[in-house]
Design brief:
The structure is a single chain. It is built from 4 helices and 11 strands, in the order H-H-H-E-E-E-E-E-E-E-E-E-E-E-H. The protein has helices at about 1-20, 30-65, 75-100, 230-240; strands spanning about 120-130, 130-135, 145, 145-150, 150-155, 160-170, 175, 180-185, 190-195, 200-210, 220-225. It binds copper (II) ion. Copper (II) ion binds near residues 128, 208, 212 and 216.
Length: about 300
C-alpha cells in the first residue's frame, strides 16, 4: 500500500510539474493558441494515465500468469476511495481546463460577450455561395477582398480584434482556416460570428469544410496577416481602385441602368437562392427583365 501511495504521489507531482513548465510556442492567433495549449495540457494528463494503466496491466499479466486458482479482490475501501477520487480529480481538471478555453470569446464568440466590434477592430463579412466566397469589409465602404492565387484574399492586421461574420446565400458551407484555429458553419439566412487576434504575419489557407456540391473542393480563400501600416495601405488602395462588384451571389448591382419598364421584376440571378436571403432587388431600381446577366467572375 505504501508503494502504491508513493507511486501516486510521484505521478501527481510529475503532472503538476509538466503543467507548470508548459512551454507556450509562438502561436499564429489567439484562437489557435488557446486550442493548442489545452491540447497540450490534456496530453500531459493522458500520457501518465496511459503509461501507468499499461504498466499495471503488463505487470499483472506476467506476475499472475501461472496462478491456477485466481481469487477476486475482497472489499477494499481504501482502494475504492482512491480510484473514485483520482477519477474525479482527472475529470474536474479536464472540465475546468476546457471551460476556460470554450468560454473564451476568441473560441466561442457570442454577441452577449462584449460590445461587439469597436472603432479600431476589423469586421470581415464572409458570404459563401455555390461555389466561392464573397469577402467584404462592411465597415470600410463595403470593399471586396481582392482575388489572389487560391481565391479571395482577406487581409487583416495583426494584434487587432478581427470579427468574421459568416453567412451563406444557398446551402450550408463551412468557413475554416486551420492554422489560425478558425472554423464556423456558413448557414443560409443566419450570420455566425467568430473572433480572433492574429499574432504572426503570413498567409494562411482557408477552405470550405462542408460538402456543398460538385465544386466544393474549389472553395479556397486565403487570410493574409500584415502589419497595421500595411493594412491601412491595403484599405487605401482598395478604396481608391474599386474592384468590379459583379458577383454571382445574387447581388446584381449591374442592373441599375436598365430602363424602367414599370414592372419591377426580380432579376434572374436571385432565383438561385431559395433560402429567402436574396438581397437582389434594390427597391429604388426597377429592373427590366432579361437585362440582368450577372456573370460569375471566376
Ligand atoms: Cu462550400
Amino acid at each position: 500500500m505504501r508503494r502504491t501511495r508513493l507511486g501516486l504521489v510521484t505521478l501527481l507531482s510529475a503532472v503538476v510539474l509538466a503543467l507548470a513548465a508548459d512551454p507556450v510556442a509562438a502561436q499564429a492567433s489567439a484562437t489557435s493558441g488557446l486550442i493548442n495549449e489545452l491540447n497540450g495540457k490534456l496530453l500531459y494528463v493522458a500520457i501518465p494515465i496511459t503509461v501507468i494503466t499499461e504498466a499495471i496491466l503488463i505487470y499483472t499479466v506476467i506476475r499472475f500468469r501461472r496462478s491456477d486458482d485466481a481469487k477476486p479482490t475482497k472489499e477494499n475501501r481504501r482502494l475504492e476511495i482512491t480510484w473514485t477520487v483520482a477519477t474525479a480529480a482527472v475529470l474536474l481538471f479536464v472540465g475546468v481546463a476546457s471551460y476556460g478555453v470554450l468560454a473564451n470569446p476568441n473560441v466561442t464568440y457570442m454577441p452577449s460577450m462584449d460590445q461587439g466590434p469597436g472603432q479600431d477592430d476589423v469586421v470581415v463579412e464572409a458570404e459563401a455561395y455555390q461555389w466561392g466566397w464573397n469577402m467584404r469589409y462592411p465597415e470600410e465602404g463595403n470593399i471586396s477582398a481582392p482575388s489572389a492565387e487560391g481565391g479571395p484574399q482577406i487581409v487583416i492586421p495583426k494584434d487587432t480584434d478581427v470579427y468574421f461574420e459568416i453567412t451563406s446565400t444557398d446551402v450550408i458551407h463551412g468557413f475554416a482556416v486551420p492554422e489560425l484555429g478558425l472554423k464556423q458553419d456558413a448557414m443560409p439566412g443566419a450570420t455566425n460570428t467568430i473572433k480572433t487576434v492574429a499574432y504572426e504575419e503570413g498567409t494562411y489557407q482557408g477552405y470550405c469544410t462542408e460538402y456543398c456540391g460538385v465544386a466544393h473542393s474549389q472553395m479556397y480563400f486565403t487570410v493574409k496577416v500584415v502589419s497595421q501600416e500595411e493594412y491601412q495601405q491595403f484599405l487605401e488602395e482598395q478604396q481608391s481602385t474599386p474592384t468590379p462588384t459583379a458577383t454571382p451571389s445574387g447581388n446584381s448591382t449591374a442592373t441599375a441602368t436598365a430602363t424602367p419598364s414599370g414592372t419591377s421584376t426580380t432579376t434572374g440571378t436571385s432565383t438561385a437562392t431559395p433560402s429567402g436571403t436574396s438581397t437582389a432587388t434594390p427597391t429604388s431600381a426597377p429592373t427590366a427583365t432579361g437585362t440582368a446577366t450577372a456573370t460569375p467572375s471566376n
